[in-house]
Design brief:
The strands form 2 sheets. The protein has a 9-stranded mixed beta sheet with strand order 14-13-12-11-7-10-9-8-15, sandwiched between helices. A hairpin with a 5-residue loop joins strand 13 and strand 14. Helix 1 packs across helix 2, helix 1 packs across helix 3 and helix 6 packs antiparallel against helix 14. The radius of gyration is 24 Å and the shape is globular. The chain has 15 helices and 15 strands. The protein is an alpha/beta fold. It binds 6-O-phosphono-beta-D-glucopyranose. 6-O-phosphono-beta-D-glucopyranose binds next to helix 8.
């Protein structure tokens, strides 16, 4: 486990830094909300600290729970001190705070948009160039109202033709709660805006280690020839959390594990592992290939849903604040997924996600096929010949590990499994950005590679919908699991049936 890789970085400019983030006014709807306080403002703070925020970038919070800009800034300072990945340095905070203003008001009240228009006009004079980035940190039910008002007040432009100022929107997941609502949302957004103006966030795509999946696959020639059904036995994708619903009981109880993380985070990771090489690294070329994977997911009928999926709830979930005492919402799910295409036919992708599990671990384990014949003598040695596993650790302890078989030192042939391990932290002497930081900068430079596209979101729902609907129709009681464990035994049975095992979680 102690082997590290020497880092020999290639000189020259970074490959993707083709376009610089442009000045803009960033308007956060839901500016006093949980997401803004935990992630968005701390992310902007760290960008400012690293000198990555354009000088003429201004931030306007829109909310109701505080009265004025000084109170808003005080609220944000307190939460940034709590949630920032680096210590808050007073001088940098003051510089950022000087760029933050506030508009108090209801989302459907015309007076709010009058106030916002005035504020944006003032900021245009400070160099934002009329560029606007609207961040919708509010429930999807508010989107039509906001978009309608923005258009009515002339605050959003239909396109970016002729090099004029741009307006873009960033939208949080989950994008809809099923195929029908996602289609309706896409249709509504597209009636106001061009697809190139819509940035649908899946923050997993902004994680350094998730982006590295592509660099790893397409920057190393040795893996591509074996990256297919001929050499890979199965793929496991795990997103295990130790935390529960953390004060988000209402949202979570209406959402559940499948909609909350599988429809988006897990399927995006699956797409990056399974996709074909894109024609180029350009935004739509990458997204085309991810969408092809979503299109190839085998949609399950009711019988297959029963055979290939497991849902469960942690004991104590129903007593969480704002959760129904009779809730049947799953906090854990495990699925066996098939991809119907040339490369992956017959290779199962096992997905599992859960809250209150024994360990926090997000990882992708690619298990290769066993050697065809054991040449090392007696059964005892042959039984130790575990297959090679390539492990992409997304978090924590981000890195890549490869399990290999080697000879145990000594006169006789005995074998052991050893691990070659690359750790980001040990290899690179630099802190990793939070996903939101990367996504803000990409949106400011108009690069949508790491955002979900309308067709991808709809294809993902097309796969998820029959599972959720079958679950919703069943009257069977939901299985419970103990907090702090690896989940319910049904989750283990799902994979054991195929004579395989999950990677340990406790
Ligand atoms: C969010 C989900 O999208 O992702 C949360 O809504 C989940 O329920 C979170 O906890 C996990 O993100 P991360 O970055 O902590 O792995």
């Amino acid at each position: 486990m102690d082997d590290t890789f020497n880092v020999e970085s290639a000189p020259g400019a970074p490959f993707v830094a083709e376009r610089r983030p442009e000045p803009c006014a960033m308007v956060i709807f839901g500016g006093t909300g949980d997401l803004a306080r935990r992630k968005l403002i701390p992310g902007l703070y760290n960008l400012a600290k690293d000198g990555l925020l354009p000088a003429a970038c201004r931030i306007v919070g829109l909310g109701r729970s505080v009265d004025d800009a000084p109170a808003f800034r005080a609220l944000l300072k307190e939460s940034t001190e709590k949630f920032s990945r680096t210590n808050v340095d007073p001088a940098t905070w003051d510089e950022l705070a000087a760029r933050i203003s506030y508009v108090k008001g209801d989302l459907d009240d015309p007076a709010t948009y009058n106030g916002l228009r005035k504020e944006l006009q003032r900021l245009d004079g400070e160099g934002t160039g009329g560029n606007r980035l609207y961040y919708f940190s509010v429930p999807p039910s508010s989107f039509p109202v906001i978009l309608g008002r923005l258009r009515e007040f002339g605050l959003i432009y239909a396109d970016e033709a002729n090099g004029g100022p741009w307006s873009r929107i960033m939208i949080e997941k989950p994008f809809g709660r099923d195929l029908e609502s996602a289609k309706a949302l896409n249709k509504m957004a597209r009636s106001f805006l061009d697809e190139s103006q819509i940035f649908r966030i899946d923050h997993y795509l902004g994680k350094e280690t998730v982006q590295n999946i592509l660099v790893f696959r397409f920057g190393n020639a040795i893996f591509e020839p074996i990256w297919n059904r001929k050499y890979i036995d199965n793929v496991q994708i795990t997103a295990a959390e130790q935390i529960g619903v953390e004060g988000r009981g209402k949202f979570y109880d209406e959402t559940g594990a499948l909609r909350d993380v599988v429809q988006n985070h897990l399927l995006e990771m699956l797409a990056l592992v399974a996709m074909e090489p894109p024609v180029s690294f350009k935004s739509d070329d990458q997204r085309d290939e991810r969408v092809q994977v979503f299109r190839s997911l085998r949609v399950m009928d009711e019988h297959e849903v029963r055979a290939n999926t497991v849902r469960a709830q942690y004991r104590g979930y129903r007593a969480e604040p704002n959760v129904s005492p009779t809730s049947r919402t799953p906090t854990y799910t495990a699925l066996k997924v098939s991809i119907d295409n040339w490369r992956w036919q017959g290779v199962p992708f096992y997905l599992r996600a859960g809250k209150k599990l024994g360990k926090r671990s997000t990882e992708i384990a690619i298990t290769f096929q066993s050697v065809p014949l054991c040449l090392f003598g007696h059964d005892e040695v042959c039984q130790r010949l575990e297959p090679n596993v390539l492990l992409l650790r997304i978090q924590p302890d981000e890195g890549i590990a490869l399990k290999l078989i080697c000879k145990t030192p000594g006169e006789d042939i005995y074998v052991s499994t050893v691990t070659m391990d690359f750790s980001y932290q040990r290899a690179f002497d630099r802190p990793q950005q939070e996903a939101y930081e990367r996504l803000f900068v990409d949106c400011m430079r108009g690069d949508a590679s790491l955002f979900a596209r309308a067709d991808g979101v709809e294809h993902a729902w097309r796969f998820i919908d029959p599972i959720q609907k079958t679950w919703d129709r069943t009257d069977d009681p939901i299985t419970e699991y103990e907090p702090g464990t690896a989940g319910p035994k049904e989750g283990d049975e799902l994979i054991l049936r195929d004579r395989r095992m999950w990677r340990p979680l406790t």
